[in-house]
């Protein structure tokens, strides 16, 4: 009887789930699959094949994949170095590498705009030394740079966490049995950090695929990602059905990417959906 | 030795990549010149300017209101939910946790848009809708912090307290609460940082007129950068540093911590 009562404590949350999680998703589905007059249509879903949308989706996928790979390549060695440090305050060092991610998302983008713009800090220093300027603001390169800066900790943390769980005696045992560094890496460290890599990939790829603010600020309107198309549909064009259709397609891409990476995550330790 | 040297250099390089932009922002906030590279002497005028700027201050106050109201309400609902979920059968738990994962894993832009589509049917977009949205995406972080603590508690201690004549509320306060308190606290801190950091969801649910710092910055950034914003960044950076050191919640943010 007491147990029965305690379950009711989740009541307010149940109402919240229905009202603010499920109903909004139903709204998106409704707008995505209906016309302005309320009749069923698939045209807003198939609109992803239109030239602008297809190009934006392609660019989003490409930049998302590049950003994820760069983050992985940068984070993995760093996680290994941090994990192998033989100092007392390892927690503090990790904290130092995580600190920038607590800074407001917009401010981090602002910092990069400041560094990269035409008369920005980097270019002024370059011309000061008599070197030629770099013109990467308003290009996809600047957007990727901003994304990497924003999402790098999301890759670093899960990989580092999975590495700390590897016990030192396993590595010593392997060494005693004659394994070299490469064998140890391939047979012990890499397989045991797969789940960390998987969660890192999901946590970087999903936000970079769906971002619109970074490309707007650092791309200056010249880099059109699928997020920007959706944002314009809602905030400028008032084309709610078109925007919902693209949002639905984007959701499918997000779910698909999670499913694909979860297939590789045999232990199910990564970002599982349930 | 060579390997050690190489790894040190690598660490310094990443460190520089992460911190140089922040250091530049902080340095420029004290620079008495509108130029981004010439040092015009030390000044605090961007700081006084920042506090006098009506747009910045209104956004700042709104941010604080949204953050603390949403953190408090989501901690309340989330903790109650965790207590309830812990007492459920496995099958119901799975359903609840599945629903909890939706806002965590879905793209922010989709979450924001979906809520906007719902809200405009009933009320005008504004402070209330932003607050509702922030509560919605904060609750999962609270649940995922409290639930593991709840699973560690020993149910028989609570039942023993009841058998000895304690009211359920008193038994909860004396037995369960001390054990879940750290989880509730870190859930609250996580809700605060999530809410402070959010841009996308606020952007779609705010309507005209209401601005948090993130959305205000976005509008300003598209026009150009005012030096007052450097001062604001510096203040916020050190404020966050203080909160973190006080709350001792590092490391683990966003979905990283959700696991």
TrEMBL record, chain A:
It holds the Pfam family BPD_transp_1. InterPro entries: MetI-like, MetI-like_sf. It is found in: Cell membrane. GO terms for biological process: transmembrane transport. PROSITE patterns: ABC_TM1. Residues 57-261 form the ABC transmembrane type-1 domain. CDD domains: TM_PBP2. It is a multi-pass membrane protein. Belongs to the binding-protein-dependent transport system permease family. CysTW subfamily. This is ABC transporter permease subunit. It comes from Roseburia faecis.
UniProtKB/TrEMBL annotation, chain B:
Keywords: Cell membrane, Membrane, Transmembrane, Transmembrane helix, Transport. One of its GO terms (biological process) is transmembrane transport. The chain crosses the membrane at residues 9-30, 66-88, 95-119, 125-147, 229-250. One of its GO terms (cellular component) is plasma membrane. It is a multi-pass membrane protein. The keyword Transport applies. Residues 60-247 form the ABC transmembrane type-1 domain. Its main location: membrane. Gene3D superfamilies: MetI-like (1.10.3720.10). It is found in: Cell membrane. InterPro entries: Bact_Polyamine_Transport, MetI-like, MetI-like_sf. Belongs to the binding-protein-dependent transport system permease family. CysTW subfamily. PANTHER family: PUTRESCINE TRANSPORT SYSTEM PERMEASE PROTEIN POTI (PTHR43848:SF2). This is ABC transporter permease subunit. It comes from Roseburia faecis.
């Amino acid at each position: 009887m007491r147990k029965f009562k305690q379950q009711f404590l989740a009541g307010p949350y149940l109402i919240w789930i229905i009202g603010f999680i499920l109903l909004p998703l139903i709204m998106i589905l409704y707008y995505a699959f209906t016309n302005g007059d309320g009749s069923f249509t698939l045209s807003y879903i198939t609109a992803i094949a239109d030239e602008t949308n297809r190009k934006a989706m392609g660019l989003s996928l490409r930049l998302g994949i590049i950003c994820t790979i760069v983050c992985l390549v940068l984070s993995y060695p760093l996680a290994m170095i941090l994990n192998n440090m033989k100092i007392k305050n390892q927690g503090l060092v990790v904290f130092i590498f995580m600190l920038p991610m607590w800074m407001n998302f917009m401010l981090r983008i602002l910092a990069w705009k400041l560094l990269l713009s035409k008369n920005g800090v980097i270019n002024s220093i370059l011309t000061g030394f008599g070197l030629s300027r770099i013109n990467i603001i308003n290009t996809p390169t600047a957007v990727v740079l901003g994304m990497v800066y924003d999402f790098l900790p999301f890759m670093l943390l899960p990989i580092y966490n999975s590495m700390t769980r590897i016990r030192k005696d396993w590595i010593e045992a392997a060494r005693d049995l004659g394994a070299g560094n490469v064998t140890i890496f391939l047979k012990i460290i890499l397989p045991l950090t797969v789940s960390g890599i998987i969660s890192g990939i999901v946590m970087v790829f999903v936000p970079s695929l769906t971002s619109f603010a970074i490309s707007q600020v650092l791309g200056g309107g010249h880099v059109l990602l699928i997020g920007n198309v959706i944002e314009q549909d809602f905030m400028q064009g008032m084309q709610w059905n078109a925007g919902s259709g693209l949002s639905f397609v984007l959701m499918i891409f997000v779910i698909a990417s999670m499913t694909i990476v979860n297939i590789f995550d045999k232990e199910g330790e990564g970002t599982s959906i349930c | 030795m060579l390997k050690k040297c190489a790894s040190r250099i690598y660490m310094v390089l990443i460190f520089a990549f992460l911190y140089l932009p922040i250091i530049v922002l902080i340095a420029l906030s004290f620079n008495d010149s509108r130029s981004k590279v010439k040092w015009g002497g030390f000044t605090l005028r961007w700081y006084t300017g920042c506090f006098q700027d009506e747009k910045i201050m209104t956004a700042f106050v709104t941010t604080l209101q949204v953050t603390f109201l949403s953190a408090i309400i989501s901690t309340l609902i989330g903790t109650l939910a965790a207590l309830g979920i812990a007492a459920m059968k496995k099958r119901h738990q799975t359903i609840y946790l599945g629903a909890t994962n939706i806002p965590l894993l879905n793209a922010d832009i989709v979450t924001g848009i979906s809520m906007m589509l719902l809200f405009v049917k009933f009320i005008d977009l504004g402070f209330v809708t932003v607050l509702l949205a922030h509560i919605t995406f904060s609750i999962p972080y609270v649940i995922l912090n409290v639930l593991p603590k709840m699973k560690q508690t020993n149910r028989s201690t609570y039942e023993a307290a009841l058998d000895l004549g304690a009211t359920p509320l008193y038994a909860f306060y004396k037995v369960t609460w001390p054990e879940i308190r750290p989880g509730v606290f870190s859930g609250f801190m996580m809700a605060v940082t999530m809410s402070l950091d959010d841009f996308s969801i606020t952007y779609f649910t705010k309507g005209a007129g209401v601005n948090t710092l993130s959305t205000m910055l976005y509008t300003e950034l598209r026009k150009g950068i005012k030096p007052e914003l450097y001062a604001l960044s510096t203040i916020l950076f050190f404020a966050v540093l203080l909160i973190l050191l006080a709350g001792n919640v590092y490391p683990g943010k966003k979905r990283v911590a959700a696991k």
